[in-house]
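Q: Got a minute? One more chain.
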Amino acid sequence: MERFADCPIILREFLSYHETIKGQSARTISEYYLDLRMFLRFMVLIKNEMPYDTDLETISIRGVDLDFIRSISVTDIFDFLSYLANDRVIHEDSFSESKGIASSSRARKLSAIKSFYKYLTVRTKQLAQNPVQDMEYPKLRKSLPRYLTLEQSTALLRSVDGPNKTRDFAILMIFLNCGIRRSELVNLNLSDIYEDRIRVVGKGNKERIVYMGSSCRKAIDAYLIERNQIVLSDNRALFGSRDKNRISASAVHRLVKKHVLETGLDPTKLSAHKLRHTAATLMLQNGVDVKTVQEVLGHENLNTTQIYTHIENTELQIASEANPISKIQL
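A: Always. Here it is, folded:
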């Protein structure tokens, strides 16, 4: 926990609990750390009546203890959410004067605060009152996920070329066929590949089995011929990079953007995560029930999966047009 040395003991204990007991991923722990550090810095600012425009990065929270946490009121937390919505600089390193972060980002920070107070009240019983227990999340703008059509997906796969053609084709095929996350793909090991399925370690270190089609299996087999001829620094890794390390999330991001651009599609609107959306959408459009798709994607909540059911379904549209009533005009 040395990387959290600038945090008070009470926050470090919370992070340690989620890392060691709850088994949360390193990314989740890092997000908790950043969000709660910002929250506590803002609390120190207002409690000490510091100038409102004080740079939060300059504020120390090492002295924050349980009594300080107990002194934080609901009004203080609303002030923090107001700061995020109206005064927080969107991009710290840019010259933009735009302020106020998105509702989704505010919701994530509130979720971290809720987890922190739940830990203090329910898990460790250090506090009797939870000021955020009934606090509502910011209203989120609902938008349908972007995805590729079957024709666009086919064009993307057929456009793959270059020195890493076999590897990149296998990666794109896994995204489009299996719908796994980028982080899950990066962490795949050679031992995770079975005859017709892949062992995937998802969020919260939860394991699931995802089956792959015959074309996906063939793509992996073709890549394995090359993979077995190289030695990586982590030789367990399924996918490697040119520097002989396990492929990174950023490298996967770049290769997806590269091939999307070569296909003639807009790389600013498509990413590895959009390929996951594509896999889910194509499964639903071709008769797979939403509960099965939930298991394939590793969604804990069915509501997360059901957003894909709102995407225009061609078959339903055709059925509507086939109804004789649709031909009647005034």
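A: Confidence is low (pLDDT under 50) at residues 92-96, 312-316.
Q: Perfect, thanks.
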